[in-house]
Amino acid sequence: MYALYDRFTLTGQHHIRTWDRQGHSWAAFTNYRQPAAHGLYIPQPVLNLIIRGEKRIYDGLQVHHLRTGDVFLIPAGSVICSEILRPAEDFASINFFLPEMLQAAQHTGAGTGRQVAGTTLTISPSADWRQLTQALLQHFREDGAMPAYENMMDRLQHLLQKEPVAVRRAVAGKPSGGMQHMMARLHNGIHEVRLLEEVASLGNMSPATLKRRFRETYQCSPMQWIWGKRLQMSALLLRTSEQPIPEIAYSTGFEDLSHFYRQFRRCFGMTPARWRRAEI
């Protein structure tokens, strides 16, 4: 149901250019000329700079509507849906994978509060962020031009250190090793699991340990989290496909239509049919 996002290439992209270091991509400029939709598991933090166009990010109870100039942070351990909206000309963005060294630096500056994983955040697009975006665009437009990796990470670290504590905690936060192992196995089968014991077995832990670690990482129970991810996928499919509503409900893991309708309305404040038609 959700694909692993460990590289920048996704279906529907019209063009992509990446910057690579030691065989791994660390930044990319991408654009789309048609609408596109993706369900993604994000194992390491991603910083998203919106260059042109609009997109929606579905993150549990939140739907973020991003526009030109926005800066968006997706922490490690996030499971999201992304919808590129009807681009009049095209949609373009620059994305970074944030490395361990930068996460550790933000952890140092984030105080003693809990480091929250999986909580997406919109960062206010200050003049500093706009200057960075323009400089990066110039590099991407010039063949062969690539800033020094260490210099760019220093610049990102400097900008993030100036952000509120909540942003720095989100950069630093990540699931524990056991939770990461479980998520690597769970993300593409969220629609299939039925019992807490099934989820716990994916992480080789007891149900009690799983519940404790889920509460520490995502501030909710495992099954609450799973139902939320099923609902956000159904919300995406309602907007981006012509599938009948019952088919969407069953395909995302709901076995009882009345339960699906109740939960969807509780989550999004309207019926699935109205959500499909609404301009939000």
Automatic annotation (TrEMBL):
This is Helix-turn-helix transcriptional regulator. SUPFAM superfamilies: Homeodomain-like, RmlC-like cupins. Keywords: DNA-binding, Transcription, Transcription regulation. InterPro entries: AraC_XylS_family_regulators, ExsA-like_N, Homeodomain-like_sf, HTH_AraC, HTH_AraC-typ_CS, RmlC_Cupin_sf, Tscrpt_reg_AraC-type_HTH. It comes from the Bacteria. It comes from Chitinophaga qingshengii. Residues 180-278 form the HTH araC/xylS-type domain. Coiled coil: none annotated.
